[in-house]
């Protein structure tokens, strides 16, 4: 049980960078970016092919991050300059990345067994924890700069920020690029941790990222940038722990993972609405009781 929980925390940290990337598009830009499923594999593919050919794992991670930046920028250009719907832009780029990833890898699967990775000499959980903390703090700092504030304002009210002279096309491209860079870096780390990169490793990653962000916000709140990014990281860990516990149920199989993910996301999305409805109902009952009490008091006063 302890080993499975430790593994879940480690996986949660590995996917935390992807959760931060999804947070940028989903919460800050309010952009439905499906590029994630392709760029995650892009990061793993670039890292795996470089490490397998003897390059430094650190250089491989940087190259994976750069590959994600390019993928996100292409999605942003399709949307802003090509005037293609945001959802469709992400789908088109995701489809294109499948062929690009196959070109990068040369085959559907690349093994990293027997080669040095970031996790060869140090504990994976320690390495990933340091990387996640560094990137989380850097993202927090960036979102408090003038450019970061413009990025946040673009998602809140693009028309208003354009009236102040900001270039919303540039900020949208920047946000999508940064988001997919983090996603690709997460893919690079996952490839090194699992010992292989596979052409299908990114399927469903957008749902996992959304689950992490939504669960994190529901449990830990998101009243500030620091708290929101922390919630995304912790949400990724909580999600992996929930999945690990669910898979320990005897009648559930490993093949049910996608179903479990979908159910978790549905619950996380529906629960806040149910809570608001119950709160409104309770407030309405309280208000009705107060009005009834006031009417009774007025009735008693009239009789006197």
From TrEMBL:
Keyword Transmembrane helix carried by entry: yes
InterPro entries in alphabetical order: ABC_transp_permease
Pfam families, sorted: BPD_transp_2
Protein's cellular compartments: Cell membrane
Membrane topology according to the record: Multi-pass membrane protein
UniProt keyword list: Cell membrane, Membrane, Transmembrane, Transmembrane helix
Protein name: ABC transporter permease
GO cellular component, one term: plasma membrane
Organism: Paenibacillus oryzisoli
MF-aspect GO terms: transmembrane transporter activity
Lineage, broadest ranks: Bacteria, Bacillati, Bacillota, Bacilli, Bacillales
Residues annotated as transmembrane: 7-26, 46-72, 84-105, 125-151, 172-190, 196-216, 228-247, 259-278
